[in-house]
Amino acid sequence: MVQFLYAIIGGGLCYSIFMTVPRPLSYVFVVPLALFTFALSFLKVNERPFLDFFLAAINYYSTPKKRIWHHHAADNLSVTIFEAKAKKSEVQTKHISHEKIEELAGKLDQT
0.70 cut: is pTM over it? Predict the structure, then answer.
């Protein structure tokens, strides 16, 4: 039923654009809309509806890909070191101060 609604709405939009816009320009709008309507109605990507794939693609391309670390928020950083041969109860915890992190960051920036 949903596929039928996609086809009816997409076909109606294609028809109205084709009838209102002058001929050479109408093909520029109608062909992509008709292909998108066909994909929504009949195409499946990995056995899932095309709409799920399309929304996931929009979400992927609209979210930022870089992660920015705000170093002012890390005043007291706790680092846990796990050793391969250590027992489960023998876990070392090391606290690193903000000044030590800034010193290490300065050394890394110099190289």
Answer: no
